[in-house]
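Project outcomes to date are best conveyed with an example. Our students and postdoctoral researchers have been running inverse folding experiments weekly, and each run begins with a structure described purely in tokens. The record below, which covers 402 residues, was selected by the lab manager from last quarter's runs and is presented without edits.
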């Protein structure tokens, strides 16, 4: 059992932390206020090789393993506690990896290099207006044509709509779930790449989120949207199972992001409680605060170790080194179940230590509080994470919805 990172991973951590401190952290509040990640930062992320770093080097990535991806995500979250940049990063890392592993050569050549250069965005489109976790009941359908597919339906609560439609020079698109055999439920779902910014028949919309404002969210309607057959990802009608691998990857990176943002928030709070006095004594000396600090730090460290174990297991599965699919899913779900809640509770208590000032916008910790709260739902709700863990503990006979 070895909990150390490799020399290369430590070097990457050091470089990304330095990049974050100088190139991201000074602009965090501006990103939150303006509701956009500056193009310059996206370009710089591409230049240092972390965008789509999980994909093969011939498509612009660096063949990064999942643990290394988690390290970068954690460091980006320390620099941008609004979690906009980490979300941009993690979505592309997880779903770029799925496209790299299961996409056609034509699709990979057409899509991945632009994303790795920071010129296009790769997102995930699964949720629908009336369908979240119950993907088997989605309404979006894909009908086969002579040269591809036509998609009809709707997707909602999707990250990166403005970035794809208005910001990035080459737009981008989404790894998208649609039914190709509607009567077969989850066994009739296929996975596609939808080039949203270049497709006819797309009607996008955006929402105003109350947190994580630097990356947009929204949705789109699909009306007879044509995509080429080369943009089918994996096998037809097997898309649900392929997508689950992407969700596992994204969920575990989210856990790392929550740990990075909450640890940085606690560090900010620790500096404050050393200086703020009550009754002539720094409040950091009071046991009520020390007990909370120790508990939160320990919980976040525990969630962090669980996240890296899950990423290590995921890497072993990807490399066919013995990890089983459901073993991986369970570990990823455990990390995603705990990290957002632990992070939220830690930041919430840290705000309390700032007194009334903590309830003003002058205290930056309201920004990560709202950011990590979004991860209670993103890439699978906490309730679904609990069901996955319980399913593996009790057996499939105890799945209530079957």
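After processing, the design step wrote out the following sequence:
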């Amino acid at each position: 059992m070895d909990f150390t990172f490799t020399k290369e991973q430590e070097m990457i951590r050091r470089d990304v932390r330095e990049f974050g401190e100088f190139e991201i952290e000074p602009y965090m509040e501006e990103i939150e206020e303006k509701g956009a990640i500056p193009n310059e930062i996206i370009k710089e992320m591409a230049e240092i090789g972390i965008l789509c770093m999980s994909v093969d080097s011939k498509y612009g990535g660096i063949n990064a393993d999942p643990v290394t991806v988690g390290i970068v995500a954690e460091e980006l979250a320390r620099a941008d506690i609004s979690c906009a940049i980490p979300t941009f990063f993690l979505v592309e890392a997880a779903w770029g990896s799925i496209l790299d592993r299961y996409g056609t050569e034509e699709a990979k050549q057409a899509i991945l290099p632009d994303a790795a250069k920071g010129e296009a965005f790769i997102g995930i489109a699964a949720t629908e207006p009336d369908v979240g976790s119950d993907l088997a009941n989605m309404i979006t359908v894909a009908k086969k044509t002579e040269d591809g597919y036509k998609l009809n339906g709707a997707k909602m609560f999707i990250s990166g709509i403005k970035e794809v439609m208005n910001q990035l020079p080459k737009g981008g698109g989404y790894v998208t779930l649609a039914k190709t055999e509607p009567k077969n439920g989850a066994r009739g779902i296929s996975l596609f790449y939808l080039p949203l910014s270049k497709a006819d028949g797309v009607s996008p919309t955006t929402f105003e989120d109350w947190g994580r404002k630097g990356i947009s969210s929204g949705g789109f309607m699909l009306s007879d949207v044509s995509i080429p057959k080369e943009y089918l990802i994996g096998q037809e009608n097997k898309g649900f199972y392929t997508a689950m691998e992407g969700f596992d990857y994204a969920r575990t990176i989210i856990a790392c992001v929550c740990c990075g943002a909450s640890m940085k928030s606690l560090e900010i709070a620790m500096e404050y409680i050393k200086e703020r006095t009550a009754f002539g004594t720094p409040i950091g000396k009071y046991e009520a605060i020390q007990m909370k600090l120790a508990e939160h730090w320990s919980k976040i460290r525990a969630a962090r170790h669980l996240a890296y174990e899950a990423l290590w297991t995921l890497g072993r599965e990807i490399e066919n080194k013995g990890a089983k699919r459901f073993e991986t899913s369970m570990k990823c779900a455990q990390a995603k179940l705990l990290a957002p809640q632990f992070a939220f509770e830690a930041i919430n208590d840290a705000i309390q230590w700032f007194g009334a000032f903590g309830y003003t916008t002058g205290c930056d910790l309201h920004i990560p509080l709202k950011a990590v709260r979004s991860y209670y739902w993103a890439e699978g709700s906490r309730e679904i994470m609990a069901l996955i863990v319980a399913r593996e503990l009790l057996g499939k006979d105890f799945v209530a919805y079957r």
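The chain has three domains: 7-116, 122-233, 239-398. DSSP finds twelve helices and ten strands in the chain. The training component of this project remains on track.
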